[in-house]
Amino acid sequence: MRSAARRKRRTDRFLVERFTEWIPGWGRRQLSIVDFYELSESLGVEVVEYPFEQDAGHAFWVGDIPYVYYSSKLSGPEQVITCYHELAHILYHPPRPEVFKRTGNLWNWSKCDRQAEIVGVIAWMPEPMVHDLTVSDLMKEFGVSREVAEFRINLSLWRFRALT
Fold first, then answer.
1. What are the C-alpha distances in Å from 8 to residues 1, 65, 72, 155?
2. Is this structure's pTM higher than 0.85?
3. Domain with residues 2-163, CATH architecture
């Protein structure tokens, strides 16, 4: 169990280092939906706001064009987290079918979604702003659910102070 946790922290650290390079301000300041739209435009990602009934968002490719759809029914904080979550899929998780073939048609979607959620919650709740806050503090300060606040608190196990 200890080695699995260590591998997860190592993988998380690599992910954090990558996104710190790829997204201006990520992990250092709170990003907004305006930041997301500006970044998406610079990357050639088409963004569509849609009133999904149940889904928060989706990321997919049509030919060479990446798309991020997010629900207009989400709160502001949920929109930011969802948009960066979906962008992480575009930037970090290959869309090519051969990836699935190489792994025997098995792909660890829970790992992909966890990685994408890390990107989303850190975009909205960067390290300098969450240091030493409780779950209740995060819920109040950032307008997020208990589940999201607990997820973010658990990321403090591998603080990345050197990157901030």
1. 11, 31, 33, 11
2. no
3. Orthogonal Bundle (1.10)
